[in-house]
Design a protein that fits this description.
The protein is α+β, with helices and mostly antiparallel strands and 144 residues long. It is globular and about 70 Å long.
């Protein structure tokens, strides 16, 4: 039985693609070498409430609504007093989920340090250090 010319073209191409994929598996992309480390302060919040309710702020919001939204899967963000939103991301690629790391801080005002990134108005921070700032007055009984 004779094999077609197509067989001799496609099989080597498939093997080549498999070798390239295997060689690059797990490498991911690298963090931008010029990423600046910043210190931000803000409330660890759900994304939905401050987006849908502009009156909601970093220091005045419904703590229960915030917690309920996060528990139901709303993305966790840090909302600064200036109204800027930062998404927590990992330093690694592929990115890993930050929910477990952020859950103890939900509803609290924090200081976060790490490389920051911005693209088309979206901000992210790869948190290397985070701590609660208990001295910042919070009204988490506010209605949203």
């Amino acid at each position: 039985m004779k094999r077609s010319t197509l067989f001799y073209v496609l099989v080597p191409m498939g093997l080549f693609a498999a070798i390239i994929c295997a060689a690059s598996a797990g490498q991911g992309t690298k963090m931008a070498p010029d990423a600046k480390t910043v210190t931000i302060e803000g409330a660890v919040r759900d994304l939905a409430c401050p987006i849908q309710n502009p009156a909601s702020s970093a220091t005045s919001f419904s703590g229960q609504c915030n917690l309920d939204c996060v528990k139901h899967g709303s993305p966790i963000i840090i909302l600064t007093k200036e109204g800027l939103i930062y998404f927590p991301i990992s330093r690694d690629m592929p990115d890993s989920d930050q929910r477990e790391k952020m859950m103890p801080f939900v509803g609290k005002y924090v200081q976060a340090i790490g490389p920051a990134f911005m693209r088309n108005g979206t901000r992210a921070i790869a948190i290397t250090q985070i701590k609660e700032l208990k001295s910042v007055p919070m009204d988490t009984d506010a209605a949203e």
